[in-house]
Amino acid sequence: MSKVPFIYWQKHKKNPLICFFHFQYQKPMATAFDFADYCYIFLFWIIATLLVNSFIKRCANFRSNARHPPGPPALPIIGHLHLLSARLPTSLEALAKRYGPLMQIRIGTSTFLVVSDTSLAKEILKTHDVDFASKYVFGPQQHSIYKDDSFINCPYGTYWRFMKKLCVTRLFAGPQIDRFIDIREQETLKLLKSLLDRASKGEASDLSMELSSLTNNLICRMAMGKKWSENPNLSIEIRNLVRNIMGSGAKLGFTEVFGPLKRFDISGYGKKLREALWSFDGVLEQIMRDYEKNEMKGSEKEERDVMDILLETYRDKKAEVKLTREQIKFFFLELFLAGVDTTSAAILWAMTELINHPQVSKKLRVEIESVVGSSRLVKESDVPNLPYLQAVIKETLRLHPPGALLRRQCHHDCKLGGFDIKQGTKILINSYAIMRDPKIWDEPEKFLPERFLNNSGDQTFEQMGTKGQDFRFLPFGSGRRSCIGQPHASIVLHGTIGSLIQCFDWKLKDGEKADVQVVKGYAGAVAHSLVCYPITHFDPFN
Q1: What is the C-alpha to C-alpha distance for residues 143 and 154, in angstroms, rounded to an integer?
Q2: Which of these, 189, 293, 309, 323, is most buried using a 10 Å CB contact count?
């Protein structure tokens, strides 16, 4: 820097603005400025802009008189990411103990209200169910090839109401589920036969893989049974495609999903996710064309599967909503994503707890043998007479809910818990925290199926169902957006667990206790495979 500007700086160093404008408008001095000087000025301008913007926002909030829920202090750009661990439901539970049952958090650029209280959950899911009937995507939506084709996550409106009615009256209605009883029995027997074969050879079995195969085959045969009958390997192909999609999506971190650079796909996993989705799309398109080439005759209508019904609706010119091929494809993807791993994970959690609590397993077997006897396999029709089996399922779902975080979005300005909630606000209901609340449940961290029995001293727990009528127990959600697959999942859970306990004793391959670690993220799956030795107790084929 030359002597002239240096002398000027010494003279006016207590007033940097005068010095700044002098440098800007006096040519001899401006030429003496180096690059570093302009960098400092630019940095000063950015900081000043941020401060002014923050001050304006604070003034606007102060003048609006709106009362917002409390929340922890946030950092710029990342928000509260530094306060969240790999297990999101437990992190939110810990924060709620400090900041209250209704708090506001920010993950990257997205802001959420977190509900961890039964009364607030009831307000959202029952009292103001219509106002909170919309959902939002809690994942890498920017990389999806199906932008507005979701049924599970679509906004509350004409399309959702049409598809919900179709599911309730035709796709997953009681008679349709009853029609699939033969499929459930066949797949259960296939599982038992595989385990009996391993038991006879003294080999260990990976229950995680066996149960995933079971639930995948069930969904595949219910959804597109005719195509499966032509190609029994179809379920394996579909499972591999869905796993590729889930694997690519799981590798995208929170910052890549919610951060300010989420559209740039820095890691490249977004591209892999799109490629996996296109592969699934191609397979489903070919399956749909095969169905269209071999349209069923009128006499065969009673044997229609889910694909038949959806394609019939797609061709119906008088339908209230005209379905697109992309909506049908994405419906099947959501069906596999929501139905396969959640059901297999719930069965796996039940088996993990039963192996870790042999006295509960023994008590369950005694009940099954007292009702069923020792000459036949337990059936779905036996379940109403097996209260302890029902209690084991309920306690498993309480500790390990398939959907630990229920998502809702407000589409009207309203009040919640005395706070102002604006239209478009995203809600996370932490059912994991609610079902482990010590104010509601005695010893909430323990696996105690007896709490759901009439002789437990609290008849209200015994009367709890899985349909979300009691807001202390929300394994499948509640209200309009509760899980449509709950009836099917409940049948599969009871039948499979009853059969596995009736037919086998279980010995772990390593150690005496099964690992109860949970996967990272907001899902509730078991983190490690459950590898154990099945020891035959009852052979249903003998």
Answers
A1: 17
A2: 323
